[in-house]
Specification:
Layout lengths: L37 E6 L5 H5 L5 E5 L10 E2 L10 H13 L7 E5 L1 H16 L16 H19 L3 E14 L5 E7 L3 H10 L2 E9 L5 E6 L21 E4 L5 H10 L20 H17 L15
Parallel strand pairs: 1-5, 1-7, 2-3, 2-4, 4-5
Antiparallel strand pairs: 5-6, 7-8, 8-9
């Protein structure tokens, strides 16, 4: 009698999809519309992240905390507390997809840390677990839940981008100590994100700016954006071919933030270039930034190079 084949003993192989693809035939030019790029801006509470983000073109806020009330803005679900859980966030994205009007050109997520935490809570509730890292039967899942959360979270952000809108993510800053290769501790500033969120978002965004408050050569407090990562803080930016993007951008008032960033991206404002050697730390400056400025001063003293010869490079904060 012939042996019967057990059903379900082997996984059925999926039929291989036939893809009608071809290699590129034309060079793709760099994107010059800054609205097509993504931003992550982080700074200490009260620095003015929300005020800066409100200057982005036709912005609509997805606010996860009550820090927007002092800003003139559009805000999704403001009358019911803004983004109160992940279901509300998803509904906001769905409505953006349905809205074909030109009234909202940028979406601001304020703050992205809370939005990510809401995503984690929603996932855990869906699959019936208390915390990521375990399956519904309580066993270790070897990273599957974290991968699923990452897919769920990034899907929403990409759906926003697929509507043709810009995206700006806001986060508080986190001060920490890190150890270098020689075993010495250094102060470091980065977005206040969990490691999993940090790994995802720092790779996802095109621009990562750290907001700092420093002293000008005249002794005035001034807000600046640090646009490039260094030994003291995380940051990143993209440059168009032949255009120098300043490593430090002045934010002299409440209304010009977006225009300053856009002008710097297009290389239109020569006066935006600021030398770090001209800046000094004050009581509102982070420890990491203070250490960076002190290190540069010492290097400058040794070499006799750097600085702008006392030239006024920043406007007084208003």
């Amino acid at each position: 009698m012939p042996k019967l084949k057990k059903l379900g003993s082997k996984k059925q192989k999926k039929a291989k999809r036939v893809l009608n693809l071809s290699l590129p035939t034309e060079m793709i030019e760099p994107e010059r519309d800054i609205r097509r790029y993504t931003f992550l801006i982080y700074a200490s509470p009260g620095w003015g992240k929300t005020t800066l983000a409100a200057t982005f073109l036709d912005a609509c806020f997805f606010a996860t905390e009550k820090g927007t009330k002092g800003v003139r803005r559009y805000e999704f679900n403001e009358e019911n507390g803004g983004i109160t859980d992940w279901n509300v966030f998803e509904e906001g994205v769905r409505l953006l997809e349905e809205d074909t009007s030109p009234r909202f050109k940028t979406v601001i997520v304020d703050t992205i840390r809370k939005a990510y935490d809401m995503c984690i809570d929603a996932y855990c509730e869906e699959v019936g677990i208390d915390n990521p890292g375990q399956s519904a039967d309580g066993k270790k899942d070897w990273g599957k839940s974290w991968r699923d959360i990452a897919v769920k979270f990034m899907e929403m952000l990409n759906r926003i981008l697929n509507t043709g809108r810009g995206l700006c993510l806001l986060a508080h800053s986190k001060q920490m100590e890190i150890e270098d290769a020689e075993g010495e501790d250094h102060n470091y500033t980065q977005p206040n994100l969990s490691k999993s969120a940090m790994d995802m978002l720092t790779a996802f965004v095109d621009f990562g700016f750290c907001g700092e408050t420093i002293l000008t050569p005249e002794g005035d407090n001034a807000r600046v954006l640090i646009t490039e990562g260094n030994e003291g803080m995380w940051g990143k930016h993209r440059e168009l071919e032949g255009v120098y993007f300043p490593r430090v951008l002045p934010i002299p008032d409440k209304y010009s933030g977006y225009n300053i960033i856009r002008s710097a991206f297009l290389g239109k404002e020569e006066h935006l270039k600021i030398n770090l050697d001209d800046l000094r730390s004050g009581v509102l400056t982070s420890k990491a930034m203070g250490d960076l400025l002190a290190t540069r001063r010492m290097a400058r003293a040794r070499t006799g190079k750097g600085g702008s010869g006392g030239k006024k490079v920043l406007k007084k904060k208003t």
